[in-house]
Amino acid sequence: MKISTNSESSGRYHSNWLNMMFPRLKLARNLLTDDGVIFLSIDENEIENLKKLCNEIFGEENFIGCAGRITKKSNNKGDFWSPNFDYILTYAKNVNLTPQFSGGANVENYKLIEQEGPRKGEKYQLVRLYMSTIRNRNPEQRFWIDCPDGSKIIPPGSTFPPERPNLGDGIWRWSRKTFEENKDKIVVKRVKSSNLLDENKNPAKWNVYTKTYLNDVLENSSAKPNSFIENHINQIGSHELNKLNIPFDYSKPTSLIKYLMEVSKFKEGIILDFFSGSASTADAVLQYNNEDKNNRKFIMVQIPEEIDEKSKAFKEGFYNICEIGKERIRRAGDKILEESNNKDLDIGFKVFKLDSSNLEKWDPDYNNLQQSLTIDNIKEGRTNEDLVYEIMLKYGIDLTYPIEQIDNIYSIGFGALIICLDNNITKDITNQILKLTNNSSTSRVVFKDSGFKSDADKTNIKEILKTNNIDEFITI
User: Fold this and answer.
1) Do the bridges between strand 112-113 and strand 37-42 make them parallel or antiparallel, or are there none, so unpaired?
2) For residue range 225-245, what is the model confidence (pLDDT) as tens digits?
């Protein structure tokens, strides 16, 4: 892949940029699910061209909106204005199938973590059950609550159960029925001062709180997010990398990515970042999965742009931006596990490099056709692992499927696909293959065409597999 600088003085600056963006956006649209959404972060230089391009590819009717994001609190650059915000263009694959945006909860308030029970590990905050601003005369909202020391407490007021409260007497936010049905969300805490009363009408030593779980707030929120996004400035992204001891600037803050996942209700599936840079998106996905216990996946795509040799990152061994992204995912995953102790969080990932096929194009010598038929057509320097993943890609098999290796035989997806890359194989190999496909309803087997000891062995293997209901016998 050619990497070059698009100079503004070239005369084709905008054309080059559009030529670079068009195929990526076209592919992005094809990869989106029917209810999928794409967010494009862009500054003012190409916003107009990008919108025209997206209208062409996604359709004007699928334009969801354009949000502004504060990127810097202060900036002294620019000829006239000092730019301190950029744009987030948002398009849907099909706006009629896309869930409405909602949320934007202040997640910073949810600092407590449930320690036990079915909601163990979830974030929550405590909210007082008595609020002086709530007023009515409903007797079902003014009742005594038992404290751990055996005393009882009630909001301030001049009447007491079973007498109906006067307007102005304190009442709970919840009715007695709701209180009884949600006792697992009730916390009664001893406090230094309380505006509640005890049975002797003296200030109580306790207060009552309800647990409000962050996931419930996100799930039930119907408020539309504001299209002017604050509190996610770029400086946060730099601080995040510093905490991981990675010396690199120009990183998007993970809080922004999490915010976009939250408001678009992205709870499962794959998030794809075509310009992944230092892998902020992957970091954000791991954090968000840890917070709400979902299992989103990510694909990061990045050209291996070289790092400035004078930079601190280069001196620490990061020679291109992909190396920074990979190391960030490793360190971020370890940090989340260490801080959360969440043993169920999946922080694993695989790294692939774009390359040509592992198979040589067949170019027979017509004067010696027999020899051409027996030549090994696998390129020099390619490993069995390279071949296995190429075959998985060509079959459209998820690259995250488990791969079991026995010698040079690979079982993918618990026997759904078997790849045998051994040499000089005879019909004896079939026993091993049939064991691997034992628990799979459909199976196909791929061999190296040059891997059979003889033509007779090749024929026998094919027939033995066929009699065991494996019809897909493929050679490469």
Assistant:
1) unpaired
2) 889 998 899 999 999 999 999
Residues facing 87 on adjacent strands: 42, 68
3-state secondary structure the chain: CCCCCCCHHHCCHHHHHHHHHHHHHHHHHHHCCCCCEEEEEECCCCHHHHHHHHHHHHCHHHEEEEEEEECCCCCCCCCCCCCCEEEEEEEECCHHHCCCCCCCCCHHHCCEECCCCCCCCCEEEEEECECCCCCCCCHHHCCCEECCCCCEEECCCCCCCCCCCCECECCECCCHHHHHHCHHHEEEEECCCCCCEECCCCECCEEEEEEEEHHHHHHHCCCCCCCEECCCCHHHHHHHHHHCCCCCCCCCCHHHHHHHHHHCCCCCCEEEECCCCCCHHHHHHHHHHHHHCCCCEEEECCCCCECCCCCHHHHCCCCEHHHHHHHHHHHHHHHHHHHHCCCCCCCCCCCCCCCCCCECCCCCCCCCHHHHHHCCCECCCCCHHHHHHHHHHHHCCCCCCCEEEECCEEEECCCCEEEECCCCECCCHHHHHHHHCCCCCCCEEEECHHHECCHHHHHHHHHHHHHCCCCEEEEC
Long-range own/partner contacts, residues 231-239 (CB < 8 A, 24 or more apart) = 231/70, 231/255, 232/69, 232/70, 232/256, 232/259, 233/70, 233/71, 233/72, 233/73, 234/71, 234/72, 235/72, 235/73, 237/280
Q: What is the pTM of this model?
A: 0.73
pLDDT value, residue 3: 45
Distance CA 304, CA 197 (A): 66
The residues, ordered by sequence, that sit 6+ positions from 229 with a Cβ below 8 Å of its Cβ are 67, 68, 69, 70, 88, 256, 259
Supply the pLDDT for residue 194. 92
The pLDDT value given to residue 200: 93
CA 78/CA 91 separation, integer angstroms: 29
Low-confidence ranges of the chain (pLDDT < 50): 1-3
Block residue for tokens 């990979």:
326
- pLDDT of amino acid 134: 84
